């Protein structure tokens, strides 16, 4: 490893080897050769004078790319595609004259981009499904564990730990739906020439429109796609990149929300992300257990959300049939968006798989606030015992204010139940009041909601994708 030049943290610290390979030069140039073979085969099948011997020669050298030859040639011609056409031709002298026949540079460049994005989306899809699966296990395990809920980060009606997890899960499921839809709509550019008119093929096939109509469908089939975009300029519409990066930004937003909640819960000491035995939380404060994985999720997620602006602006500023101001931006924003979301999902999977729950802390905080939330039940019991509802409401308001002052101004425990027990207007003793303090009474339908959500929504998704379950996270640092 060289230490005297910039190295992207996305490849060195965050993204998996699998995702890195998808966006590697080796993947790109091998895909170029697949595309040249598909084009030559299609042209042969449609009647051009291309021999099977030439096709076989191309196939024989589809994988063993002579990179040094291409590199030296590019120094001379300053064109990456023509440099690789030349290098391929050096290995395939019999097929040299028919490589890239009728095509423009975007035939290999843009079709490869679509193929690579499709494969990258599949990696993201698998990881997203595994995150959902782990969250489903967590939600099921803690579906009945009462916990204090928060609105505005202020104590609110109780929920359960599992019910809260379904909120994270639901957003990831929305992202999965968006991903699968966008992935299903991806099409190849095909081979449409310099301005999308297929004029060069009109010349090659002597104006035979029927044969020209078959070129794109045949190429698409050979590369595993259902179709090519019906119209284009020289490139596929950069709107495609916008749609893909918006999917990644949606996943990043969901991951960010999840990580924020974990960070807040870790502050409350109710739930913690995994912490390794030899892990150091702070260089100064040895006792600290910082939620560094969740913080990294938030940090990378912000990058992906902002990165989605790049293809949107690029798409908006393309002129007519194409301009080249997309190239430098595109080769940064698209791969790095995928590398970052790959790292994010690995972190999410690692965090969810190792979440630590502290029921005693959860119970203690809930019980400190529960007397306030139980006041309506207490009031109903007192009315059934003969009390006046309006008078009791006013007394509870006054006593609640007093108990609140004791907590906030004096640092005392919540003594609302003691104050109510001592007030003859309620006619309830301490034992009767304690019966109202069962947290399970105040979580509503949360446990049932978790069960129904898992059974009706999550389980069918996991069953349909059981072949990809069981992935483990690849965490570099």
From TrEMBL:
<dbReference type="GO" id="GO:0044208">
    <property type="term" value="P:'de novo' AMP biosynthetic process"/>
</dbReference>
<dbReference type="Pfam" id="PF10397">
    <property type="entry name" value="ADSL_C"/>
</dbReference>
<comment type="pathway">
    <text>Purine metabolism; AMP biosynthesis via de novo pathway; AMP from IMP: step 2/2.</text>
</comment>
<comment type="similarity">
    <text>Belongs to the lyase 1 family. Adenylosuccinate lyase subfamily.</text>
</comment>
<dbReference type="InterPro" id="IPR000362">
    <property type="entry name" value="Fumarate_lyase_fam"/>
</dbReference>
<feature type="coiled-coil region">
    <location>
        <begin position="48"/>
        <end position="75"/>
    </location>
</feature>
<dbReference type="GO" id="GO:0004018">
    <property type="term" value="F:N6-(1,2-dicarboxyethyl)AMP AMP-lyase (fumarate-forming) activity"/>
</dbReference>
<comment type="pathway">
    <text>Purine metabolism; IMP biosynthesis via de novo pathway; 5-amino-1-(5-phospho-D-ribosyl)imidazole-4-carboxamide from 5-amino-1-(5-phospho-D-ribosyl)imidazole-4-carboxylate: step 2/2.</text>
</comment>
<protein>
    <recommendedName>
        <fullName>Adenylosuccinate lyase</fullName>
        <ecNumber>4.3.2.2</ecNumber>
    </recommendedName>
</protein>
<dbReference type="InterPro" id="IPR004769">
    <property type="entry name" value="Pur_lyase"/>
</dbReference>
<keyword id="KW-0456">Lyase</keyword>
<keyword id="KW-0028">Amino-acid biosynthesis</keyword>
<dbReference type="InterPro" id="IPR020557">
    <property type="entry name" value="Fumarate_lyase_CS"/>
</dbReference>
<dbReference type="InterPro" id="IPR008948">
    <property type="entry name" value="L-Aspartase-like"/>
</dbReference>
<dbReference type="GO" id="GO:0008652">
    <property type="term" value="P:amino acid biosynthetic process"/>
</dbReference>
<keyword id="KW-0175">Coiled coil</keyword>
<dbReference type="GO" id="GO:0070626">
    <property type="term" value="F:(S)-2-(5-amino-1-(5-phospho-D-ribosyl)imidazole-4-carboxamido) succinate lyase (fumarate-forming) activity"/>
</dbReference>
<dbReference type="InterPro" id="IPR019468">
    <property type="entry name" value="AdenyloSucc_lyase_C"/>
</dbReference>
<dbReference type="GO" id="GO:0006189">
    <property type="term" value="P:'de novo' IMP biosynthetic process"/>
</dbReference>
<keyword id="KW-0658">Purine biosynthesis</keyword>
<feature type="domain" description="Adenylosuccinate lyase C-terminal">
    <location>
        <begin position="370"/>
        <end position="454"/>
    </location>
</feature>
<dbReference type="InterPro" id="IPR022761">
    <property type="entry name" value="Fumarate_lyase_N"/>
</dbReference>
<dbReference type="GO" id="GO:0005829">
    <property type="term" value="C:cytosol"/>
</dbReference>
<dbReference type="Pfam" id="PF00206">
    <property type="entry name" value="Lyase_1"/>
</dbReference>
């Amino acid at each position: 490893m060289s230490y005297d030049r910039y190295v992207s943290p996305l490849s060195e610290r965050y993204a998996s080897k699998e995702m890195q390979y998808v966006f590697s030069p080796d993947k790109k140039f091998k895909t170029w050769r697949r595309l040249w073979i598909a084009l030559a085969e299609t042209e042969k099948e449609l009647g051009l004078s291309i021999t099977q011997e030439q096709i076989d020669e191309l196939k024989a050298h589809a994988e063993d790319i002579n990179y040094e030859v291409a590199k030296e040639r590019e120094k001379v011609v300053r064109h990456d595609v023509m440099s690789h056409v030349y290098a391929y031709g050096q290995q395939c002298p019999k097929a040299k004259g028919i490589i890239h026949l009728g095509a423009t540079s975007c035939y290999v460049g843009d079709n490869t981009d679509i193929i690579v994005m499709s494969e990258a989306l599949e990696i993201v899809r698998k990881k997203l499904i595994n995150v959902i699966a782990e969250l489903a296990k967590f939600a099921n395990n803690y579906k009945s564990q009462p916990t204090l809920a928060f609105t505005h980060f202020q104590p609110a009606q109780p929920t359960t730990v599992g019910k809260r997890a379904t909120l994270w899960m639901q957003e990831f499921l929305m992202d999965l739906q968006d991903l699968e839809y966008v992935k299903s709509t991806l099409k190849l550019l095909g081979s449409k020439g310099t301005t999308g008119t297929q004029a060069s093929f009109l010349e090659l096939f002597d104006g035979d429109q029927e044969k020209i109509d078959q070129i794109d469908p045949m190429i698409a089939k050979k590369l595993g796609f259902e179709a090519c975009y019906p119209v284009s300029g020289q490139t596929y519409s950069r709107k495609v990149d916008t749609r893909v990066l918006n999917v990644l930004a949606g996943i990043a937003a969901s991951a960010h929300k999840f990580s924020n909640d974990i960070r807040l819960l870790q502050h409350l000491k109710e739930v913690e992300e995994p912490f390794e035995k030899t892990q150091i939380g702070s260089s100064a404060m040895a006792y600290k257990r910082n939620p560094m994985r969740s913080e990294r999720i938030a940090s990378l997620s912000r990058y992906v959300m902002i990165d989605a602006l790049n293809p949107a602006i690029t798409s908006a500023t393309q002129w007519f049939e194409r301009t080249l101001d997309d190239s430098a931006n595109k080769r940064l924003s698209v791969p790095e968006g995928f590398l970052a979301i790959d790292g994010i999902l690995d972190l999410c999977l690692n965090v969810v798989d190792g979440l630590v729950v502290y029921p005693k802390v959860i119970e203690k905080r809930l019980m400190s606030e529960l007397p306030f939330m139980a006041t309506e039940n207490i009031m109903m019991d007192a009315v059934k015992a003969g009390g006046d509802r309006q008078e009791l409401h006013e007394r509870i308001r006054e006593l609640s204010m007093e108990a609140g002052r004791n907590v906030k101004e004096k640092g005392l425990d919540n003594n609302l139940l003691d104050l109510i027990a001592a007030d003859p207007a309620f006619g309830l003793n301490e034992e009767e009041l304690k019966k109202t303090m069962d947290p399970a009474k105040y979580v509503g339908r949360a446990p049932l909601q978790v069960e129904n959500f898992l059974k009706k929504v999550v389980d069918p998704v996991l069953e349909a994708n059981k072949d990809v379950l069981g992935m483990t996270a690849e965490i570099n640092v």
